[in-house]
Structure formats: structure tokens, C-alpha cells
Amino acid sequence: MAQKNCNDKIAISLRNVSKYFGDKKTIDNISFDVHCGETFVIMGCSGSGKSTLLRIMTGIIKPEEGEVIINGKDIVRCSHQELDEIRKNFGMLFQYSALLDSLTVEENVALPLKEHTKLAPDIIKIIVKMKLSLVGLRGYENYYPSQISGGMRKRVGLARAIALDPDIVFYDEPTSGLDPVVGGVIDKLIKDLSEKLLITSVVVTHDMMSVFEISDRIAMVHKGQLIAIGTPEQIKNSTNPYVQQFINGRPDGPIDFFKEDIGLKEILGL
Ligand SMILES: Nc1ncnc2c1ncn2[C@@H]1O[C@H](COP(=O)(O)OP(=O)(O)O)[C@@H](O)[C@H]1O
Ligand SMILES: [Mg+2]
Predict the structure, then answer these.
(1) Which atom of ligand 1 is nearest to the CA of 172?
(2) How far is 74 from 4, CA to CA, in rounded Å?
(3) Ligand 1 pocket check: which of 20, 24, 25, 26 to mutate, most ligand atoms within 8 Å of Cβ?
């Protein structure tokens, strides 16, 4: 396994981040650090604010309160140019960022290289081949997305996400819609790529198999608040009943999937 050489450094730092949609506080005063080189998993129920948090971390949307520090810059307040510069180091595999059906696998992976670099077409071809072999899809260059399976399409998305050799890759529900076996392949790939390419990975998921398979650290979000953070061991041993109910997938417990308003004071022990 490649040595992760920068675990003591901070890749992303969130400080008291809050985001409102209308009157609703969707993200409520969240602070945490993502360390360089780690695979940081954000888990929580559907609607808890995970995707919103990821969109804030990638600068797609801005929170009303708080700071998001990346490379020493607060991406909430920096200029468009500075944000563009920082985002060149990001790779993203988002839940609904589908491949373009009219383009081949090769053309899909080449897109960010064509858009963000001035590399010659034959060099881009070589880079695309390399990225496709990293995700186990060498030889599929000329296939169209409709000609390959769902798991393979995710892998093409993964190759596209790492096309520009990013420092940080953000994944939103990378295994959603896949059967557990194929999901397991994607998990293994995320882990392998993080280790081989020394990438910092931020993975949003509610898939418990994935959480413990890939994480170095885990944050649990519930109703927009950070209710637990720690190593997989610490999360497994957490005494927080919400964490226990979620990781064990129990229908009964403090999380009421049918009720909107859950007593957060109780969760946080206030
Ligand atoms: N653009 C938006 N406008 C209004 N409400 C939104 C928007 N995006 C998300 N929300 C709401 O914020 C909450 C959290 O959503 P989301 O971050 O997508 O949750 P998750 O990814 O954990 O399922 C949900 O109640 C959702 O309806
Ligand atoms: Mg989501």
C-alpha cells in the first residue's frame, strides 16, 4: 500500500457552516476537518443534508454562515477566479452527473482534459487510456454508455473524475442504484485509487456496507447537524443511540423516518 504522506495536514476545514433554503436551516453550524490523504465518509439518512454539505465543500453553493478553508483560502468568500483555480484540483462523481450518452467512453473521460488543458489530442488519448486502465476498463474506449453496465458507467465516471489528477475527489452516493456486489467493486476501486494516487476522498453515502469498507473517518449528519465524528472503531462503539440505530439499520429507535421534527437537543445531549 502506498504511504499516505500527508495525514497530518488539513485538506478541507469547515468552520461553523450553516445553509438555509428559505426559512429551513438545512446545514446547521457544522465544523470539521478533512485530513490530506484520508477517505472521509459523510453518512446519514436521506434528506439529512449530505449532498448539500458536499455542494458547499465543492463551492457549487455558498453557505450563509461559516467558512470552508481549502489551500488556505475561504472558498465561500474568494473570487470566482480563485475558486476556479482551487476547483481544478477537485474531481467529482456526483449522483446524477451522468455520462453523455452521445459520446463514447473515451470522449467522456477526455472531456475535462479538453476543457481544462491545452494538451494535444494524442496525449489526451494516452491519458484517457491510463485512467481507464486504473478503473479496469482498458479496451472499452469506443463503447457508448448505453452499451455497458451500470457499474461500468460508474467506473467511467470515476475515470473522468480522476482525469485531471485531482488532489481531492468528492463522491455523492457512488454505489446508489448498484447491486451489493457491483457496489463492492466500486468501493474497492475508490479505496485503491485513494491509496495509489494519494487522493483525499470525501464520500457521501447512506450505504452502510460502503461506510465501513472505505472510511478512514466517518461523520454522521442528522437533520443538518453533525452528531458524530470519528474512526470506524469509534463510530461502531458510539453510545449515541442515533448512530447505533443508523449503522445497525434498526427500524425502531430515536430516528423517526416518518416525522420531520426530531428533537435535536436530545441527540446532542443538551
Ligand atoms: N436547492 C434546494 N432548494 C430547497 N431545498 C433543498 C435544496 N437542496 C436540498 N434541499 C433540501 O435540503 C434537505 C437536505 O437535502 P440533501 O442535502 O439533498 O440531503 P441528502 O443528500 O442527505 O439526502 C432536504 O430537505 C432537501 O429537500
Ligand atoms: Mg443526497
Answers:
(1) 21
(2) 25
(3) 26
pTM above 0.85, yes or no: yes
Question: How remote is the CA of residue 49 from the centroid of ligand 1, in Å?
Answer: 6
Class of domain 1-89+203-260: alpha beta
* Tens of pLDDT, residues 100-155: 999 999 999 999 999 999 999 999 999 999 999 999 999 999 999 999 999 999 99
Which residue puts its alpha carbon closest to atom 8 of ligand 1? 52
